[in-house]
Amino acid sequence: MTELASRYRENHARLLAAQQRLQHAVDTGTATAHDRKRLETVAELLTPRKGTDVDAHGNVIAVEHPRQFLSVDVSGQGRAVEVIGDLQQAQNVAVLVPGMGNSLETFRGQSDRADLIRAEAGPGTATIAWLDYDSPQGFVEAASKQAALDGGPRLAAFMTELDDLTDATTTLVGHSYGTDVVGQALLNGARADRVVLTGSPGITKYVNEAADFVPAPTRLYVERAPGDYVSYSEWHGPDPATFPDAIRMATNSDEAVSVHWHNEYYRVNSEALRNIGRVVRGDLAAITTTETTRGQETKLAWGTVLNKAAGVAHKVYDGLAPPTARRPVPVTPSHPAARAGNTRPRQPEGPRR
């Protein structure tokens, strides 16, 4: 049995044991409301993922894929790290780090999002839904950087572990508060071939360009959708979509499903998801870009209010956790500036590390 298969089996057994323990609490009348909800969640985590395949005769058939957990913890908010696809055979691997408001109860949604990335990137891709940190629950907790400061080193350690499990090209994908976790992981030595940030509230107030936290030759790819109030707020630092050495990917095109606001980056048939897939599979010349400004993207009257709220949020999290010290990293050459609204493909990045 391979190391991966052994870990999948161990975590499956861990879930079965948790299910039995929670069911016993229900049967004996000692279960809390949280226990009952967690029992339903564990049952879902044990349910195989349904899909389709093509048999030897060309017929589309229904198939079931066992869930593959590298780690799982049913206590507290709950944590889980799930592999979607064949990690051993994959040529490209994407690690998705979700943002605020997540727990074991919402994990399936993040797992499905990782599966969408896998499908968009195409054959030879495996994805990993990584929720191995205590995601902030609500805006007050999200205003603090503490969860990112705690989760970043854990993610960095996982990326080192991933290097031992696969030789595939790796892409870190962070969404919302998860982009701050990704940033802290990179500041703590995490290595990935490419980094994608969507809907970022910023990394830290001292990070003003990719070279401040992304080690060369890794390139940073950023998406900011029109009307994304989280990116506009810059709660945790300058908006990465404005970094001069980041590649700003388009989220919309005339023929694709439209993407607006904060939670639509992973819509099927959207330019936002297509570009993420291009990064993951290394089809970098096909990436479409944009340099639209906030003013061009939205005329929302409450933009000023959000920026004022961001200032309050800075004071809140500054009081809870000191900012991460800025670490010197090699500076990569800035990519050529594109004209506003340009959707021409970028040229491929430099050589892999």
UniProtKB/TrEMBL annotation:
Disordered: annotated segments: 321-353
Domain of life: Bacteria
Coiled coil: none
Domain DUF1023 residue range list: 73-232
Protein name, UniProt field: DUF1023 domain-containing protein
